[in-house]
From TrEMBL:
The keyword DNA-binding applies. Residues 40-59 bind DNA. The gene is rutR. InterPro entries: Homeodomain-like_sf, HTH-type_TetR-like_transc_reg, HTH_TetR, TetR_C_34. Residues 16-77 form the HTH tetR-type domain. The keyword Magnesium does not apply. This is Transcriptional regulator, TetR family protein. GO terms for molecular function: DNA-binding transcription factor activity; transcription cis-regulatory region binding. Keywords: DNA-binding.
Length: 233
């Protein structure tokens, strides 16, 4: 459903459509901007075809707007991660060499979900960097609490692929975000600096995000599996 610019959204469906249009505008601007700080509410309103005051009806601040974009992006990523993990075979710890295959499969699922939702890594890096200190605590709490069940589901799915009980896999889940944020920081320069890293002499600093993250996750998973106590004979 689309809403004509300048018309006020009144129905629940119309309000949801306008909110999505505003978030889409914020996403497009952020994808081309060096930082969240470089994106203004007035620019978002113009890109969405609404008045500046309309944006504030849906988000009381720029920080709240980007928190909503973070939430939408993360939920989309979780959907893709669930689907990719579901497509992987369950690990068979009784099979010799299973750990290497399981670690590769789990890492591929996580990296694939990041490829499916390209903004995920950048927004998470921003949330835990410049954005979070300026957020309303109650708003951040609501978003984080709302994701707990989804993350518990990811732990169960990840455990199936790795051959770990869900409670042990849950201890690994924070590492997904650590790897994602760290690899983003070193392998994905902001758009305004991308050209710098294309210079021939900058080749040592050009890193492939997917490869770097995949290797980091694989090694993390292998380390976790190797640390498990052996089952008694």
């Amino acid at each position: 459903m689309t809403i004509a610019p300048g018309r006020r959204a009144r129905s629940t469906e119309a309000k949801a459509a306008r909110r999505e249009a505003i978030l889409d505008a914020a996403r497009r601007l952020y994808e081309a901007a060096p930082t969240i700080e470089a994106v203004g509410i007035e620019e978002v309103a113009r890109a969405a075809g609404v008045a500046k005051g309309t944006v504030y009806l849906y988000a009381p601040s720029k920080e709240a707007l980007f928190l909503a974009l973070y939430e939408r992006t993360t939920l989309a990523w979780l959907n893709r991660l669930e689907a990719r993990l579901a497509a992987k075979s369950a690990a068979d710890p009784a099979r010799a060499g299973y750990a290497a295959d399981a670690a590769r499969a789990a890492a591929a699922a996580v990296v694939g979900a990041c490829t499916d939702v390209p903004l995920m890594a950048r927004l998470n890096a921003a949330l835990h960097g410049s954005l979070e200190p300026r957020l309303d605590a109650d708003a951040l709490y609501a978003v984080k609490i709302g994701m707990i069940e989804r993350l518990n589901g990811i732990a169960r799915d990840l455990g199936r692929v790795l051959g770990l009980p869900a409670r042990e896999a849950a201890e690994v889940v924070p590492g997904l975000f650590v790897c994602m944020i760290g690899c983003h920081h070193v392998a994905m320069p902001p758009p305004n600096l991308a050209g710098l890293y294309e210079r021939p002499e900058m080749a040592p600093y050009r890193l492939d995000f997917s490869r770097l993250m995949g290797n980091s996750l694989r090694d993390m998973f292998l380390g976790r599996l190797a640390a498990r106590p052996e089952e008694p004979a």
